[in-house]
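Question (not urgent): is this output format expected?
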Amino acid sequence: MSKTEQFLKEAFAGESQANRKYLAFAQQAEKEGFPQAAKLFRAAAEAETIHAHSHLRALGAIHDTAANLKEAEGGEVYEFKTMYPPMIEAAAAEGNKAAERSFRYALAAEEVHAELYAKALKNLKNASEVSYAICTVCGYIAENGIPEKCPLCGAGSKAFRKVD
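Got this back:
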């Protein structure tokens, strides 16, 4: 890998993390009654997305939809099989309940995400219309409707947000 490719990967990761962080900061600003600060954080988050997408394109890392679905499924499988188990173990050993819960929710949700990607790939050429809703507590994705309770974390239906 060339130095430029390594820098593009690092820049993509940094811009991606900044996007997510700024969106979390925007939510906090809204909660505290600072809508102008929230708006600025959302604008900056969108700018970071533009940067991240540009870096990804420069890497040649965006492919056709079938290849993208395969890559996404592989990433989710890696997360729930390899990445999260030792994180859960470490958090439990350290008594960090919040981190352990966060990791457990993510692991369970990533397994569902992998299944959804595999299903989408299988049905890519003749896909029927599917609606999605996401649990804002754990990241579970529900298909075609909102459950009364999240099957992963138990949150009520009000915790779900429809995704366009």
